[in-house]
Amino acid sequence: MGAEIRPPLIGEEIPYGQAALPLFCQGTKAAVLAPLDGIIQAMNPKPWQYRGLTPDDPYGAGWLMVVPATNLKSDLKNLVSGEGNGPWREEEHLRLLAIVEPPVGASPP
C-alpha cells in the first residue's frame, strides 16, 4: 500500500505548527507542519501526477504550494535557520520516512 498525500485547497488557511500537508500510509498519519501562518494561494499539480518530482526538483518543477505569510514578523522567530537547519531537516526526513516506508527486515516464509 502506498502513501496518500492530501493536499490543501486554494484559499485554505494553515496555521503555524499545524498539518499543512497530511500524509497517510498503512493507517498511520504523519504531517508536514506549516512553518508559518498563511493562506494557500497556489498549488502545483505536477507533484501529485509525478511522485518523484518534488524530491528530485523541489525548487524547480517540484514545488508544492505558494503560501503568503499572514503573520510573518511573529513566525520568523520560530523558523529554524542557519546551522540548525541541516540537523532539523534530517530529523524530520527520518521521522517521515519511518512512517511512510515499511520497516526493513526478514519477511515470514
List the helices and strands and how they pair.
Elements: E1 4-5, E2 13-14, E3 19-25, E4 28-33, E5 38-39, E6 42-43, H1 46-49, H2 53-56, E7 65-66, H3 72-75, H4 85-100
Antiparallel strand pairs: 1-3, 2-5, 3-4, 6-7
CATH homology superfamily: RNA polymerase II/Efflux pump adaptor protein, barrel-sandwich hybrid domain
How much of the sequence is in beta strands?
Answer: 15-25%
Strands of the largest sheet, in order across it? 1-3-4
Order of helices and strands: EEEEEEHHEHH
Sheet with most strands: 3 strands, antiparallel
Q: Give the helix proportion (percent range).
A: 25-40%
Q: What does this protein structure show overall?
A:
The protein is of the alpha+beta class and 109 residues long. The chain has a single domain (4-100), classed as RNA polymerase II/Efflux pump adaptor protein, barrel-sandwich hybrid domain (OB fold (Dihydrolipoamide Acetyltransferase, E2P), Beta Barrel), CATH 2.40.50. It has 4 helices and 7 strands; from the N terminus they run ββββββααβαα. The chain has helices spanning 46-49, 53-56, 72-75, 85-100, and strands at 4-5, 13-14, 19-25, 28-33, 38-39, 42-43, 65-66. The strands form 3 sheets. Strands 1-3-4 form a 3-stranded antiparallel β-sheet, with helices on one face. The longest helix is centred in the last third of the chain and has 16 residues, at 85-100. The chain is globular and about 35 Å long. The mean pLDDT is 81.
